[in-house]
Amino acid sequence: MALDTRELFARLIKCEAGGEGDTGMRAVASVIAxxxxxxxxxxxxxxxxxxxxxxxxxxxxxxCLKEFVGGExxxxxxxxxxxxxxxxxxxxxxxxxxxDSSVGNSLFFFNPYSPNCPKFFPxxxxxxxxxVGAHCFYAPTNAYLKT
Length: 147
Known about the structure:
Layout: H1 5-17, H2 21-37, H3 41-46, H4 52-56, E1 68-69, E2 72-73, H5 85-95, E3 108-110, E4 120-121, E5 126-132, E6 135-140, H6 142-145
Antiparallel strand pairs: 1-2, 3-6, 4-5, 5-6
Helix pairs in contact: 1-2, 1-5, 2-5
């Protein structure tokens, strides 16, 4: 199934943060926008000067883009998700270069399934910036700049 960037982004937003309300979905979309717009580190090489699709489809970044996880079919993937208007609206908002100040320049996020966010993500490339809903958001460190 060929999906254009907007459709893929809307599906990713719903898959990654659909249960987090508008605030959580904007926070997740902001990380993708930050990755697409950064001029530093690994993501600056991946984004080719602002290519959201290249960031979204980068290998091993989002479980929602994997059809199989641990050898098992991942039924919660972007190909099985039908976005609603809110997901398209947030995708459009981020594609226009908008980001939410609640996550600052964060380039990483994850749901720890715990009330606490680890200080670093997953090594020393990101340091905790904020928690929005169930997700922890991490700003890049100097170690990230060397990636």
